[in-house]
Amino acid sequence: MDFRMDLVIDYMPFFLKGALYTIGVSLVGILLGTILGLLIGMGKIMRNKLLALPFILYITFFRGTPLFVQILLIHFGLIPLVIGQTNAIVAGIVALTLNAAAYIAEIFRAGIQSIDRGQMEAARSLGQTHAQAMRYVILPQAFKRMVPPLGNEFIVLLKDSSLLAVITVPELMYWGRAFQGQYYKIWEPYLTAALIYLILTLSMSYLLGRLEKRLATE
Amino acid sequence: MIKVVNLKKTFGDNEVLKDISVDIQPKEVVVVIGPSGSGKSTFLRCINLLESITDGHVYIEGVDITDKKTNINKIRTDVGMVFQQFNLFPHRTVLENITMSPMKVKKESPKVAKEKALVLLKKVGLVEKANAYPDSLSGGQKQRVAIARALALEPRIMLFDEPTSALDPEMVGEVLEVMKQLALEGMTMIVVTHEMGFAREVGDRVLFMDGGYIVEENVPSELFARPQHARTKSFLSKVL
To answer: Which residues, including other chains, have CB under 8 Å from residue B239's CB and lie 6 or more apart?
Structure first.
């Protein structure tokens, strides 16, 4: 096997630019997905089953269908329907956000429901409203327990962002494929991309590990 | 002060409270005893609406808490509750456990809330634990903090739901001592407990519950010495 390191070095600016896009869409996806996921998770645990139904359906759809299908539906269907034409980056972020929100909603639900019922009862018995009890008593405790599974989800999302290459979001994998097309090389672009993904996911695990430690000692 | 009229509570098909009526006077200490499953805790939890009421009425200082228009959060600041499992907030320090609700619910300033909390901690003998986290406390200390936390809202009624049942025997005394002190200060209290000594010494009245009814009620000296009902006799013979 003749590994052309010189081509990899030549192409490095594109890989790095791609990596920035990967980081960018992932971070936005994580941020929006977390906010949306919290709302959907709270929606799902509403006592009124009829009100909770749309949230349950949402989670069922986005967890039960492939992300790849969702990306294509959103890129070629949803986004043109809403803004008249499609935009790969917008479609990519929307797809990652909506998909991650379904998983994050379940993480939030499990986190909230793992807190002993007595905590809510104590807070309510002290005159707090349901919302106050959630905010000051339940969520701070639930959040600690959510950090490890949330970290997993963030890493999955970062890796899944590679699927956005097929709708021409100029992220890391997009440039990997471009490299392959230009030089008819397999190992060079994909091993390089894999290595960069690995660096990104390892950095992320490291940061999440630090956060977990800090929360544990608080 | 508290008037319970024909209170009924069902969980699904299970009728836990069948027909409870009782009147509790200001400063009265009412002790509720009875076998497990008799509905004692459910009865207590209906008084601050931690359990929804199936039928009947509960009036707290004349206000019908079963009325949908009643602001239950406001009522609950007047009715403190202490739980068997303490239910302290583990992510907050002892001091923060106590100041949280006065600050968030009654909008007290942090300074005022803290001063009051320290007075209460002194009362329960735990000032030195103000900045500790609940996990570092013994069961008896946790329960004393829980009592201080409930008192921080300046309630006029205190409900105790088996406050010493989860404690190691050597810690029961310190909690009962705080409760006794509270009773002497004139707090209106309803105490669900298995501590017959406390019932006899501190209680003004004892209610014996069984099968969702108040089977018998009397002043403690009478009820313990001369129980009228067979079920009361049988229960007392087992626990005394």
So the answer is: B33, B194, B196
Nearest to A122 among B83, B91, B153 (CB): B83
Residue type, position A47, single letter: R
Taking the C-alpha atoms of residue B65 and residue B159, their distance in angstroms, rounded to an integer, is 16
- Cα Rg for chain A, rounded, in angstroms? 21
Question: What is the tens place of the pLDDT at every residue in B32-58?
Answer: 999 998 999 999 999 999 999 999 999
The Cα A131–Cα A45 span in angstroms is 14
Sequence-separated contacts (24+) of B168-173 with Cβ below 8 Å:
B168/B138, B168/B139, B168/B140, B171/B138, B171/B139, B171/B140, B171/B143, B172/B140
Dist. CA B22–CA B71, nearest whole Å = 23
Nearest residue to A113 via CA among A208, A61, A199, A47: A47
For residue A78 the two structure tokens come to 């949803």
Is the minimum CB–CB distance between A119 and chain B shorter than 8 Å? yes
Provide CB contacts within 8 A for A102, sequence distance 6+: A37, A40, A58, A59, A61, A62, A63
pLDDT beyond 90 at A181 = yes
Which chain B positions have a beta carbon within 8 Å of A128's beta carbon?
73, 101, 104-105
pLDDT at A2: 82
Chain B residues in contact with A123 by the CB 8 A cut-off are 89, 101
* Beta strand ranges found along chain B (DSSP E): 2-11, 14-24, 29-33, 55-60, 63-64, 79-82, 157-161, 188-192, 205-210, 213-218
Residue B213's CB: how many other CB atoms inside 10 A?
A: 16
pLDDT score, position A22: 97
Residue-wise pLDDT tens digits, A96-118: 999 999 999 999 999 999 999 99
pLDDT digits (tens, 9 = 90+) for B92-132: 999 999 999 999 999 999 999 999 999 999 999 999 999 99
Instruction: Answer whether A125 sits within 8 Å of B104, measured CB to CB.
Output: no
DSSP B125: T
With bands split at pLDDT 50, 70 and 90, how would you rate the model's confidence at A212?
confident
Bridge partners, residue B158, by sequence: B80, B189
> What ipTM is given for this predicted complex?
0.93
| Structure confidence at residue A89 as a pLDDT band (50, 70, 90) | very high
**B48/A119 CB distance under 8 A:** no
Best of A125, A135, A137 to disrupt the B interface (most B CBs within 10 Å) is A125
